[in-house]
Amino acid sequence: MTDSDLERWRLVLGEPAAAMGELSAEARQRDAALQWLYGRDEEHAKRDVRTGGGGASALTTVDWLGDITRLFPKETVERLQRDAVERYEITDVVTDPEVLRTIEPNPALLRAVLQTKHLMNPEVLRLARRIVEAVVRDLVARMATEVRSAFTGTRARRPSRWKQARDFDVTRTLRANLGHYRPDERRLYIETPHFFSRTRKQVDQWQVILLVDQSGSMTDSVIHSAVTAACLWGLPGVRTHLVAFDTDVVDLTSDVDDPVELLMKVQLGGGTDIARAVRYGAGLIEQPRRAIVALISDFYEGGSEQSLVRTVRELVEQGTKVLGLAALDEQANPAYDRSTAQKLADVGAPVGAMTPGQLAQFVAEQVGR
């Protein structure tokens, strides 16, 4: 085992591994930063890993953030910040004005801001908004191309005189030029290449209604729902609605074109009345056969499950496309009540998890029919 390997293990294990040898000056600083965070973990103490000391830490949150930014790579910094907020509830990471003025925005901090913004005074909230704006801007930039490309023209099975590499018809070209195959050279010479035509989908107006559970476990899905709605906004043939719910229902459609403002209005936490939200969504539908309802929830129903299933069945029977999404984010890793989800699937509403791009592709396929 190399010296660098030993040092890594020493940093992982903390003081209980002191017998492994002395740390370099920079490694001691890293060790102090890790101890400041993970030394407070009682589970680590039980396993003789990073046991906490009895004295007060000399580091403030501001000092610690400065140290980890200097001592660790970006990916590690984001993980440490995420653990600080989500695991140890060190809320001053996103509520201390001095921190907010200097901290580098990232998705973990965006989640933290959304979960703690109700604790912030107006000045702190103004500073925290910088994190929301920066991360959302990055998400929109990455997702907009994927979402909008789902609505571009598709290849038609008729020939085109326009010769573009992306529309090259391999099968037709091979068949048309088989007579030019030379066995002795084992080569096929192409005299006449063929291409597809590319036509833009002609679409009628559809409604896409996103019903988003804003309970605490759905933070990532709330963020990606807001950004997805913004990316769908203004696309030809699509009218987007976004509705957030817990035990109450809040229609945020007027802010769909501004995902930052939308997220600043979301209130995470509270109970869940999914049936009430679905009934509200049903009331928005103008043409049932040209409507898509995406219910984004963990499906832990705090209201009437019977009413929820009945309303979803009625929507499906009238010709509305209903999707149940247990997660809408880049990882698409769902955690949800499978019993309730199965009951919705049984009445015709498939339940699963999607990335924003997959949802956009589904919408585009329905709209383009």
General description of the model:
There is one protein chain. This protein has 369 residues and is α/β, with parallel strands linked by helices. It has three domains: 3-140, no CATH class; 159-196, no CATH class; 206-367, von Willebrand factor, type A domain (Rossmann fold, 3-Layer(aba) Sandwich). It has helices spanning 3-13, 25-38, 42-46, 61-71, 74-87, 92-95, 97-102, 107-116, 122-149, 170-176, 219-232, 259-265, 274-284, 305-317, 338-346, 356-367; strands spanning 154-159, 181-182, 187-188, 196-199, 206-213, 238-245, 249-251, 291-296, 321-328, 351-354. Helix 2 packs across helix 4 (61-71), helix 9 crosses helix 12 (259-265) and helix 9 (122-149) crosses helix 16. The longest helix has 28 residues, at 122-149. The protein starts with a helix and ends with a helix.
Write down the secondary-structure element order. Answer: HHHHHHHHHEHEEEEHEEHHEHEHEH
Q: Give the N-to-C terminal Cα separation.
A: 61 Å
Average pLDDT for all residues: 82
Number of strands: 10
Mass-distribution shape:
globular
Placed side by side, the strands forming the largest sheet appear as 7-6-5-8-9-10
Helix content range: 40-55%
Number of structural domains: 3
Main structural class: alpha/beta
Low-confidence stretches: 52-56
Output the CATH topology of the largest domain: Rossmann fold
Quaternary state reads: single chain
- Largest sheet descriptor: 6 strands, mixed
In CATH terms, what is the architecture of the largest domain?
3-Layer(aba) Sandwich
The proportion of residues in beta strands is 5-15%
Q: How many H/I helices?
A: 16
| CATH top-level class of the largest domain | Alpha Beta
